[in-house]
Amino acid sequence: MSFYLKAAAVFLLTLMSSSISIKETAMSSLSTNTLHQDAQVIGLVSTAHGVSHFSQLLLAALFPWLKEAFNLSYAELGFLMTVFFIVSGIGQALAGFVVDKVGARTVLFAGLACLGTAALAMSLAPNYGVLLAGSMLAGLGNCVFHPSDFTLLNQRVSPSRLGHAFSVHGISGNLGWAAAPLFMTTIATLASWRVALFSAAFVIFAVLALLWVYRALLATPVAASAAAHPGAAHDGSALNFMRLPSVWMCFAFFFITALALGGIQSFSSSGLRALYGMSLALAATAFTTYMLASAAGMLMGGFLAARTTRHDRTIALAFTVSGVMALIIATVAVPAWGALVLMGMVGLGAGIAGPSRDLLIRASAPKNATGRVYGVVYSGLDGGVAIAPLVFGALMDANRPAWVFICIGLFQMLAIVTAINVGNDTSKRAAAAQAV
User: Fold this and answer.
1) Cα 326 vs. chain centroid, distance in angstroms?
2) Which one of 244, 323, 327, 430 has the fewest beta carbons within 10 angstroms of its own beta carbon?
3) What distances in angstroms separate CA 186 from CA 62, 180, 254, one per listed residue?
4) pTM value?
5) Higher-confidence residue: 31 or 365?
6) Rounded CA gap, 163 and 47, in Å?
7) Residue 133, Cα to own-chain centre: how many angstroms?
8) How far is CA 184 from CA 195, 201, 262, in A?
């Protein structure tokens, strides 16, 4: 815990101080990185990641207002989110190539600019078509964050602190999810939904301005290396990473875990109400418990990830606990308050697996292909989240709330198989490289 406290203090003090030499700090080698520099980079990248998750729920939080303002059906409202994640998923797979070509910092700034512009445009939307176009632009902005963020963290943070870096990065995403509904609904209630979206645009552009001020800290040598090998993009070598089985197993891992996450986000509250007769407030508390426990799990996972190289084993243990807890919820063998506790355990297990998951991908990525690998792999996350509401919604329509939690548990356990396969494949490649 001392690392996180020190890192937070260093990051905040740095932002308040104007006397540091950013350029000299940013260009120092990773072998001489200090906690000071690592905390700055982690703080900046994680702040951007929090904004991306914040932006994912801007429209969802405003559905009651948008439905009334434009006389929309629930299907039309849901389509706004489907379009967002389809664009984000396709774009994410492509964004990794752009990151490796022109650099993570440039792509990250472009993504934030797209998100801010989308929020601003939607705040002025005269009809549903503009909302739809804004959702597409927001999806395009959202697609860049994982390949950009993880490339920056891998290149600008000391290897010994990467477990903690991925932990903070994951927590920032959860905080973004948690902040969006509160921020948007509060402003929409006090003013209007247009003011809420305008305020969100202001927040996004403010973060972009912050990153611009400290842009030297986010400089990477990627663009320079790409320029030094201009033929690489044309001889097929840029796609060689796609031949690795571990890359596609990582994609499958993200797709499967996203199905479970999408089920929890979309229908866990409805499922708990149907199974346990919970009030709406208590069911919402159960989801909040899941999110808080997931954040706590990421803190724990950062320490575990820093102490092992077999990250697949950490993932297997964490998801086993998480999956079993989901299956117990489905049996209705506990009282309502017990289901609340079990939801926390599901979140804890998922959170613990987070940092190890990201380090597992890093280990499977070939040299100089980090952006491409993270882009392709994380597109599975968007794909799973886009499909999950259809799957779990059909279960709820069929009056099968128990199967919501059964599927969540089964998906998490199925993900263990892919994680172990990735770990084994990566170990074999590392052993073969050493033998050569």
Assistant:
1) 22
2) 430
3) 10, 10, 33
4) 0.70
5) 365
6) 17
7) 23
8) 9, 11, 21
Amino acid at 269: S
Per-residue pLDDT averaged across 223-245, rounded?
53
CA distances 269 to 45, 259, 369, 372, 392, Å, are 31, 16, 40, 36, 12
Sign of the alpha-carbon dihedral angle for 202, 207, 208, 210: positive
Which residues fall within 8 angstroms of residue 379, CB to CB, at 6 or more apart?
A: 89, 90, 92, 93, 251
Handedness of CA 295, 298, 303, 306 (dihedral sign): negative
Q: Two tokens at 177?
A: 């999810």
pLDDT digits (tens, 9 = 90+) for 384-407: 887 887 788 888 888 888 999 999
DSSP class of residue 195 equals H
Question: What's the token pair of residue 387?
Answer: 């499909």
d(CA 201, CA 102): 26
Place of tokens 């770990």: 423
Within 10 angstroms of residue 139's Cβ, the number of other Cβ atoms is: 28
| DSSP-derived 3-state class of residue 312 | helix
